[in-house]
Amino acid sequence: MILALALAASLAAAPAQAAPGPFPYPLHRRQLANGLRVFFVPYDSPGLAAFFTVFTVGSRDEVEPGRSGFAHFFEHLSYRGTKAHSGDDWERATKSLGMDSNAFTDDDVTAYWLYGPSAALPTVIALEADRFRNLDLGEDDFKVESRAVLGELMKSQASPDFEVEEASREVAFTRHPYRHTTLGFERDVRDMPSGYQHALDFYRRLYRPDAAMVLVVGDFDEEAVFDALAQHYGPWQGKAQRAKVEPEPPQREPKEVRRAWAAPVLPRLWQGWHTPGAEDLDATAAQLVLWPLLFGPSSPLHRELVLERRLAEEIAGEFQPRRDPFLFGYELVLENAAAEAPARAAVERAVAEVAAGRVDPRALADVKANVRASLVMQTDTPYRTGVWLVYYGGLTGDPGYVDVVLRRVERLGPDDLAAFARRWLVPENRTTVVVATGGGGRAEKPAARGGAR
């Protein structure tokens, strides 16, 4: 409700075009009769445009036991073609047009993009509408592609940082689908060849126009592009049928787990706190500012742990908003096992300083300015601008949410950050994961890897 009211207040005065705000380009909104939302961003890129088809569908929608990883798997399957255009035909056609193309899947969103000459947009629109409306998925192709997804998972599992990500989710979450990574639990991925009917059902339930957006950024004729969208995407019918996502219950006590890593590596220390999702505008803005303030390269904690005391090689991570409550966390790559205790103590002191309201006003102003400058730096091409908007659009269904959040960031003060820290960054709400050679102490084999929820 908080988010809905904020968006309504922001957009009511100009339903077709967003009012000027921190986001540096105009955002025009349209909609087809079938519910497909269309967003246009005029951008000074003569002859170039980026075209995105975006589904507000991600791994959070994988609620069926034993079927994690299917949102990402379906991203792969969508390139297998239709009766009108095989996957190879699609590849040849887009390359002949001079288009770069790819896709990505996250917790909350799946996006397919092409970037290249604006003159190719009519053909691109026809090809993309065909594959999302008329995917022709054979069982043999399905089984072949499932092995590619398993290979991607195995490659990721060769990194201790992926072990940290898997462990942090498995330990912190008990019910919500955020418990698994976008790639899914290993056992579920190995069992994907048995899920052909589930994949068809996934497509029929979730790849519907009212769960999709089209975003066009660059140099284009808006009316001509909208007419082409109406022609090719307009006949797409159906309503998305989302399964209920069970909310995560509150965490009542600290959680901690240690995982053994077979090869010699520097120890990883990860800590995260359950925090609200995008529905809570105040919390989202606070986290965008608080992460660089606490853990960024200009933070006192970074100076202490990395530069002065040399307890850590780096502080890794970032804050990315999620649709539902997620985790506000950081990862330390420690110099050695002995560095863990003093590093944890330093983090606790830094968090306590924020909770007490002891925030340097100049540092806060610098971080807020940097948050906005980072946005501008990530909008230097139509493609990169589109990616930024895709992530924020996936949270709410409207990419204009980025302006709503940044306006709230501008009004943040030390008291706002202190209130957030006192409410959420508390020991009983914290999960700790240590990954080290031999476990760095009491070793525990990943229990949930390969286990269904």
From TrEMBL:
Domain of life according to the entry: Bacteria
Keyword terms: Signal
Limits of the Peptidase M16 N-terminal domain: 54-183
Secretion signal span: 1-18
Pfam families, per database record: Peptidase_M16 (PF00675), Peptidase_M16_C (PF05193)
Domain Peptidase M16 C-terminal: 197-370
Family from the record: Belongs to the peptidase M16 family.
Name by which UniProt lists this protein: Peptidase M16
